[in-house]
Design a protein that fits this description.
heterodimer, A: 452 residues, alpha/beta, 15 strands, globular, B: 302 residues, mainly alpha, two-stranded antiparallel sheet, 11 helices
Chain lengths: 452, 302
């Protein structure tokens, strides 16, 4: 009981801290009246603090580059960043503040799907376009037609790892340990489970934990008894580091597999040698020799004193770049116009790959698999293409009608905006709904079906 | 069967740490009837100072030795003991005459001060802790059950400290004074007991134990962060209540029960139910025996 009131106090205090932070962050006072304001919400503190700070660096770099090149429509961009401390309620509060008091043109954030899901309804209700750099849970963009993302979605990551495990690692059995308090983790685990089974593997045990736990020995002891060949842990780095250590402690020595939530320099600091030989899917690799990536890495290092951009920084850079690109193309800087331009994004040359928006406002682009090597170095272990992308060609047509309808009636039909998305392709509506239910859109199952 | 034994080993090791933290709650409650909510954060401070002493101020963590580990623990104990003293001296003592609620709110205030002050100084990111020369993966096997040396150290150190504590409370002058204050402060004062000194001593003692618990916890789970005291602190509080708050043996028993319940529930039911069931046990026991398992009114308070 007493602790409850303590929690309440935490919230109050957090808001107070949030206010202070914002004043520090919005230091660009001189440019205030002419600047275009962009809101950013991120976990600058808390257990996922590197998510927020990395993303912020990426966004800031993209913003500085656009500003240096003359800004958008002759105006400079000012990013107002609010810290949500990794708490969903704080993310929602921050989004509301940015929309109603700062009147931002668009929102960037959040990294974590759970927090993006708290922000998205606020953005949707206010018709403020929101671009999440790295929230891969598919529910995020289902909130409404103002919500976009610059990354692929969970079904794809779960699919990538299932495919990598069966094709490259030739595994027959695997166990899953998922974070039940995290939509991202639950989503990846579900799709991995479905695809691994479909590709001929067997899930021998499925256990769960809650983020922030420090003791996983009970679950790991059970998993060890089921004798899997690999353990899929689609969690975030702090938990994964501890899980890796404790897995080795209870004598579970099989490789661990995971998703992009592993991507932080803290992962190895906490997990240490226990992580060596594990694999995770990610959005990009710094070791990728492609010039586009190497140039970005060089620019980022120059801007941040030699710091190497992790994938969250790269994606945030792309999310901001994609948003600014859309704002340049938009006929004006109102929410509906920016939304239209964002929805038409096609082959945007991001550092993490060519980004095209599909009809569900999700980015289609390839994923890479990285191996944690000796000393915590990530080794590039392969690239998995979104097989469904080619088959998902029909995903293109709905976008065209959406543009025309949106252009003719951006204002009078706020409630009906979602309809154009589905109206031109009544046949596709059913499949979209069905796919949404099974948790498989993103063309992956389409590729599956066409092969079978 | 082997799995069950393995779960029991993990449960006992976790329970020993809860018990160590619970001692601090229970002693302060015994003497002052105050629930010191900042105690869980003193535990965090212990781990954090251990990290500073081993990774920042020295290079101990790079090449841990037993001597170094003991030195780190002593430094952390000294800092936490001082903090405990200061919190009592400047936070609780001025409020001693006022309603209990005021002290309680102050305790929550100190809790936040330590948590967010820690976040400000230490940074919000978790850091890896490694002051002991053994890692959790150093272990041996008995009857197919793997026991890590850290588990042994946790249990050994906890039991050792509890024995020492018991001797202090029941077989020393200051312990007699503590019991006297706990029984009836005005009368103890009339008998020539320096109440301020006794209460300060209680806080220092509890904080020192929390520092040791912090080091053990961080060694076992390899992670230090400013909010790490929240859940263990709460669980230790529950352990103290479960065993009968104000009762030292009760705190040990409560910690053990909670640690075992948590491990067994997450292995045989679901980790999602772990806390729910642990707290349900608390409610059940309190319904049947409101003073806690070993609580006997005021007779054995300290």
């Amino acid at each position: 009981m007493r602790r409850m009131s303590a929690n309440f106090l935490v919230c109050v205090l957090a808001v107070a801290i949030g206010c202070k932070k914002e004043q520090q962050g919005g230091g660009n006072v001189g440019a205030a009246d002419t600047a275009i304001k962009i809101g950013e919400v991120g976990s600058m503190t808390g257990t996922e603090a590197t998510f927020g700070t990395s993303s912020h660096n990426g966004i800031q770099l993209a913003t500085d580059e656009v500003n240096a090149a003359g800004g958008i429509k002759g105006k400079q961009i000012q990013v107002i960043a609010l810290d949500d401390q990794g708490k969903p309620e704080e993310a929602a509060t921050a989004a509301t503040r940015l929309i109603s008091s700062e009147r931002v043109a668009a929102l960037l954030g959040e990294v974590a799907s759970t927090r993006s899901l708290f922000m998205a309804p606020k953005a949707q209700a206010a018709k403020t376009p929101m671009v999440s750099p790295s929230s891969t849970n598919e529910k995020v963009t289902q909130v409404g037609d103002y919500i976009f993302r610059a990354c692929f979605i969970d079904p794809f990551q779960g699919y990538v790892m299932a495919k990598f495990a069966t094709d490259t690692l030739k595994l027959k059995t695997a166990a899953i340990l998922r974070d039940v308090r995290n939509d991202y983790s639950v989503g990846l685990a579900k799709v991995f489970n479905e695809n691994f089974t479909k590709l001929g593997g067997k899930i021998v045990d499925s256990q769960s934990y809650s983020s922030g736990d420090v003791d996983f020995k009970a679950q790991l002891t059970n998993i060890k008894a089921a004798k899997p060949q690999a353990l899929y842990v689609p969690g975030y780095y702090t938990d994964v580091g501890l899980i890796a250590r404790q897995a080795r402690e209870v004598g579970l020595t099989v490789p661990m597999l995971g998703g992009d939530g592993w991507d932080s320099e803290k992962l190895y600091e906490i997990g240490g040698a226990a992580l060596e030989g594990s694999y995770f899917s990610n959005h990009y690799s710094v070791d990728d020799p492609s010039p586009r990536i190497q140039e970005f890495v060089a620019r980022f290092k120059k801007a941040y004193g030699g710091q190497v951009p992790d994938s969250l920084a790269a994606q945030a850079y792309d999310a901001a770049g994609m948003l600014y690109d859309a704002m340049k193309r938009a006929k004006d800087l109102t929410g509906p116009s920016i939304r239209e331009a964002l929805a038409q994004t096609k082959d945007y040359k991001g550092v993490t790959g060519d980004i095209t928006m599909d009809e569900h406002r999700n980015a289609t682009k390839p994923a890479v698999v990285l191996k944690v090597g000796k000393g915590g170095k990530y080794e590039f272990s392969g690239r998995i293409q979104p097989e469904g992308v080619k088959e998902a060609g029909p995903g293109e047509p709905p976008r065209e009608p959406k543009k025309t309808e949106g252009n003719t009636a951006p204002n009078p039909a706020p409630g009906t905006t979602p309809t154009p998305t589905q109206a031109p392709a009544p046949g596709a509506t059913n499949s979209a709904q069905a796919a949404a239910n099974t948790g498989q859109r993103q063309g992956v199952p389409a590729g599956e079906h066409s092969k079978k | 069967m082997i799995d069950l034994l393995q779960h029991l080993v993990h449960g006992v090791s976790l329970g020993a740490i809860y018990a160590l933290i619970a001692l601090g709650y229970t002693m302060v409650y015994g003497v002052l009837q105050l629930i010191n909510f900042a105690h869980g954060d003193v535990f965090m401070l212990g781990a954090m100072m251990g990290w500073y002493a081993s990774s920042r101020w020295t290079q101990e963590a790079a090449h841990p030795t037993w001597f170094g580990a003991i030195a780190v623990t002593l430094v952390s104990m000294a800092i936490c003991g001082t903090t405990g003293f200061l919190i009592e001296r400047f936070g609780y003592r001025p409020l001693r005459g006022s309603p209990k609620l005021n002290s309680l709110i102050t305790a929550i205030g100190f809790s936040f001060l330590l948590e967010y002050g820690g976040q400000f100084v230490f940074g919000p990111n978790p850091r890896a802790f490694g002051a002991l020369p053994v890692s959790p993966s150093d272990q041996f096997r008995v009857l197919g059950v793997s026991i890590s040396y850290i588990d042994l150290i946790c249990v050994g150190v906890s039991v050792g400290l509890m024995i020492v504590l018991n001797r202090i409370i029941f077989h020393s002058r200051i312990g007699t004074a503590m019991r006297a204050v706990s029984w009836n402060p005005p009368v103890a004062a009339l008998m020539g007991v320096n109440i301020d000194k006794v209460i300060s001593f209680t806080f220092v003692l509890g904080s020192v134990l929390a520092a040791v618990a912090g080091i053990l916890f961080a060694s076992a789970y390899r992670k230090v962060e400013p909010l790490m005291g929240l859940m263990p602190g709460l669980k230790a509080f529950v352990s103290a209540v479960l065993g009968g708050i104000g009762n030292v043996q009760g705190a040990m028993l409560g910690g053990l029960i909670l640690g075992l319940a948590e491990q067994l529930v997450s292995s045989y039911v679901s980790s999602q139910w772990k806390d729910a069931i642990a707290f349900a046990i608390l409610i059940l026991i309190l319904l049947v025996k409101p003073s806690g398992l070993l609580g006997k009114g005021t007779a054995e308070k300290v």
